[in-house]
Write a structure and sequence with these properties.
With 409 residues, the protein is an alpha/beta fold. The protein is built from 15 helices and 14 strands. The N and C termini lie far apart (64 Å).
Length: 409
Amino acid sequence: MQLSDAQRLDWLRLIRSENIGPRTFRALVNRYGGAGPALEALPFLAKQGGRTIRIAAREDCEREIEAVHRFGARLLCLGEEGYPKALRAIDAPPPVLCVLGRIELFARPSLAIVGSRNASAAGLAFTERMSAELGAQDMVIVSGLARGIDARAHRAALQTGTVAVLAGGLDRIYPAEHEDLARAISERGILVSEMPLGWEARGRDFPRRNRLVSGLSLGTLVIEAARRSGSLITARFAGEQGREVFAVPGSPLDPRAEGTNDLLREGAMICTQSSDILDALAPILRDGLPEPGILFETQEETAEPLWDELDLVGASPSPLSAPGHEMDEDPASPYIAPSLSRPRSDVDWRACILLLLGPSPVSVDDLARLSEAPMAQLRTILFDLEMEGAIERHGGGLISLILRDTHSA
């Protein structure tokens, strides 16, 4: 299917109209045979429901289309050639995507890699390894451009193929320190969003982004995640979409492993090497995607719909919801950024090193590379931490953080 310019404009007007989300869009198009007739019917349907509805103005959507073209991106509509097959298979896929980059990568199999913003050095190193090994097997790496695990997965897959899903418009990169990374992805991979250019991401937009991250992928790998992490939202959506969910086990003493260990107890597949993923996905690559289902039985009672959709024609929008109010990119949350995001003279190197350390042993070389700390300063910090009894040295130049079990105190 290939939409005409007039049809594309109608599609954009319909999805940009007030209280129209993917479910309502699909129901309206199915009932009236197209977006144009659905737009004509909207005022009558809204009046029947006792309310008015703001329909996106033709001029506004024409300006959006022009802005997308000037930006070098394109609007990709559901059913058109190039629209990701994996995303098309989920419940209520986004009718219109804004994409920038090598859209031919959508035709290759993909895996989502997500995890903690405040990731450990061991978690970041494992992320690099998985991204590189899976990329070498023609797997495209999908993530959400967040700090920590997401960004590391993108960087490690730049040469082989990566897709970054944004919560806001393609011209509103969040966090801001990833603008250079986003530019590199747009040149070698793909940036994708269902939001218009100029859209500043809000709290609700991040679970919507997570739904696309999992929907674009045959499976989702969670490497580190605390409880109530946005990464768990991605895992839950993956399970509901009938996709495989993988988790990396971690120390029960490390808060960054609580979420992944919970996933394993709830039925996620354990992942300790890339072959775990390749073996599990082999039947899907051979036979195609399974029907969406439910992997996790529990659901937050506070779940809110991702869109304020009106049930104009039996669209039943309420089941499409996020598992709680979690937002994995909270600007107010404490985050100790590495030297890339602030002047080197302002970096609290000790805090940065402690953030990267965990119970899993990591080499001093990896710690230096991932923290970007001056080696002399790093050795001084490690010596002080050892004298304080905070770290333990292992064979082969490995070190780990000594975590105290507060529950047994």
